[in-house]
Amino acid sequence: MSSKHEKSFVDFEQPYEQNLIGLKGIIYFGIGLFVLIVVTFALMWALYGVLEEDAKNKKASTNPIPLTEKERLPPEPRLQGAPGFGVDSQNGRVNLELRAPQAEYWELEKQWKVQWEEGQKDPKTGTVVTMPIDKAKELVLERNMKAKSGAEAEKAAKEPTMFISDASSGRMASLRRR
Fold this sequence. Notes:
Elements: H1 23-57, H2 69-72, E1 86-89, E2 92-95, H3 103-118, E3 120-121, E4 128-130, H4 133-143, H5 151-158, E5 162-164, E6 173-176
Antiparallel strand pairs: 1-2, 3-4, 5-6
């Protein structure tokens, strides 16, 4: 064996590996970390002072649109015992605070029965929006509507059952639904 080795930290003559610690680098890192912590603390302290001063200057709310009592409430649905719990009806808002949990359904059921029996009209225009089924049937039968017949009617009846398939390369409806 030759005793000539390249320059390295390993000493082949000793039975153990020498542990070289760069103490100088560790000390520099520690000092740098301490300085960084102190600078960050000073900047945070200055930011806190600026924000505290700004909060003292703005005592009054700068909200351009003050909220009404109804706007302050959380959005529907609300808990039954919560303030503002209720149902909107044609006669105004029905207050259901501190009533049975089923009270909302009962009130809505009353409104639905009235609409089912009498229909509903638009309050602004007076146009009929909904009407009872029996009345609607009578109106349709009074019109004496004519049914289409002929080739055009047969084509219109077959169209909904046809669909576009791969065989037609997406150009035309060629297959019939079963």
